[in-house]
Structures are given as structure tokens and as C-alpha cells.
């Protein structure tokens, strides 16, 4: 079921079972199980200093034209011994969410120790989106060398 914006009621308005079911019951059911998308574990290796996609595009349908809470967690590491940074950013509907220095939404500083996993998290809430299908995709780049990104969980929820 989709969210239905209930109209304002005034004193004396007759509430029929159909109106009650639409304005109250359907909206409570929607709030109980809003649109949700999940993606499990993926591994990605890059030596690119320009952003490249970490995973396939993930879609979510916003039934009510609301906001989307995007959460992704994982770790990054390297096999070498030189320190480097992995930058992660998010593309929404094909447009990159940029920062002033283009270092992404998350910068993961990897020490010079090989196989030292460093955790990262992206937590992003969109503005109000149109009622439609929207695409989200994480991109990564490195400062130098080769970085490995483990995407352990990706979750999108209409809020």
C-alpha cells in the first residue's frame, strides 16, 4: 500500500469506513512496512584516481514522493605497505553528490600496514523526492596505489 495524504477534517464531517480505511489503516500499514531496498556483501578493487562504481545501481521506488535514508557500511584496506586514502561518494539518479574538494562523502585513511581493515559508513538523507523510481550507486577512488572496498551492507528506506 502507498501513503495517502489525509485531508484536514472539520467538525461534523462524516467519516465512512472507506475514508477511515484509506486515511488511517492504509497509512499505518505503510508506516509499518515502508519501501525498503537491501544489498549484501560486495568486494571491489580500484587503483583509479577518478570515481568508478563500486556496485551495480540500486533502485528504490518512492511511493509517496518522500525522503530516502541511504545507509552503507563496510571496510577498506590495501595489500601494499604505503599509506593511501580511499574516497567514497554517492550518485543519486546519475548525479554525483559533491563536496568542495571532491573527496567524497567519506574519506578512509589507510595506514601503511597491509590488510589493516578500516571501517567506513555513509549515512545520507535525501531531500523530498518525486514519487518515482530513484537510483543510488556508491563510487570510489584512491589517492594513490590500490585500495580494496568491502561493501558489507547497503540499505535504503523511504522515510
CATH class: Mainly Beta
Largest sheet: 6 strands, antiparallel
- What is the radius of gyration? 21 Å
Helix-strand pattern: HEEEEEEEEEEE
Strand content: 35-45%
CATH-assigned fold name: Jelly Rolls
- Give the second-level CATH assignment, the architecture: Sandwich
Provide a count of the helices: 1
Q: What's the end-to-end separation, in Å?
A: 15 Å
Helix coverage percent of residues?
10-25%
Mean pLDDT: 88
Tally the beta strands: 11
Task: Explain this structure.
- With 159 residues, this protein is mostly beta strands.
- It has a single domain (36-158), classed as Sandwich (Jelly Rolls).
- Helices cover 10% and strands 45% of the residues.
- The strands form 2 sheets. Strands 3, 4, 6, 7, 8 and 10 form a 6-stranded antiparallel sheet that branches.
- The protein is elongated and about 75 Å long.
List keywords for this structure.
159 residues, mainly beta, Jelly Rolls, five-stranded antiparallel beta sheet, 11 strands, 45% strand
Question: How is the secondary structure organized here?
Answer:
Layout: H1 17-32, E1 36-39, E2 42-46, E3 52-53, E4 58-61, E5 68-77, E6 84-92, E7 95-96, E8 106-110, E9 118-125, E10 133-142, E11 147-158
Antiparallel strand pairs: 1-11, 2-11, 3-10, 4-10, 5-9, 5-11, 6-7, 6-8, 6-10
Write a short abstract of this structure.
Helices cover 10% and strands 45% of the residues. With 159 residues, it is mostly beta strands. Strands 3, 4, 6, 7, 8 and 10 form a 6-stranded antiparallel sheet that branches.
